[in-house]
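hiii, so i know i said id send this last week but things got crazy w the move. better late than never?? heres the sequnce for the chain we talked about at the cafe, plus the structure i predicted for it. fair warning i was half asleep when i ran it
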Amino acid sequence: MTSRRSPEQLFDAARQGDRSGLARALSLVERGGEPARVLARLAAPHTGDAYTVGVTGAPGGGKSTLVSVVISHLRSLDIEPAVLAIDPSSPFSGGAILGDRVRMQDHATDSGVFIRSMASRGHLGGLALAAPEAIRLLDAVGKRWILVETVGVGQVEVEVAGRADTTVVVVNPGWGDSVQANKAGLMEIADVFVINKADRSGVDETRRDLEQMLDLSDLPPDTWRPPIVPVVATSATGVPEVWDAVLAHRTHAQASGVLERRRAHRAEDELRQIVVRRIEEIAKDIATGERWDQITDSVIAGNLDPWSAADQMLDGCS
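okay and structure toks below
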């Protein structure tokens, strides 16, 4: 078999359990373009069975260590998870930083675990669009539990993690100004709070802060209230309780219809973003050429206002 397989060949191989084929297919998804669109079309009919768990929180909070011990717990339950680690792009190669892979190296030889670091390698729309496409591909090839870890709490990271079916927010004792957490959007997306490094002082104060913030959010009586689970990830203490909280949220989300509504909202939002990105591409194409230069010169000379100029450009392309 040649080293350059088509998207169709890679998808078929991944569906048959070929890890190399899946890795190559995910690389196409990251790069975007027509090959990624082919994979999206192939994957669509085979999706809907996976459950995604987002794990986010401030850098240094121990997210990767937590994910690693959660993987160990899942393997003890005979569950074969996939992990999508959303990393910043390397300033040198444009690829994903592999720190999370180093921290998860205990699972590197386990054929029941698939770990992928993911960065935005030119995909139109960046990680906000590439990540859900990667999740769909993992779903289509049979991954039933997908863990999505983000490295920080920037807008993109919170957006990606918040699109999961269940979102776990990791904080540490003495996590700092709670207002900053609200600004980052963590309170809005959290379904489960984990206080990691709970062997340190300040756990009770952190729990109290979180409880007070949840009280202030004025949740309706029948709304899910995020549980707060203390954990020491380095010793795997509290990990079964974290997973129990995830399962409890899944049960609630399914029974209440929240899961269905959340997934429908994600699909609509993704479609809207794709349309916006495609229009941006068209706009860039419009804003070139001799006619563009002529109208721009008129604006510069003060003979035409920018809004009328834009109307003329768009009218000429309709």
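btw The two ends are 47 Å apart (CA to CA). thought thatd interest u
miss u guys!!
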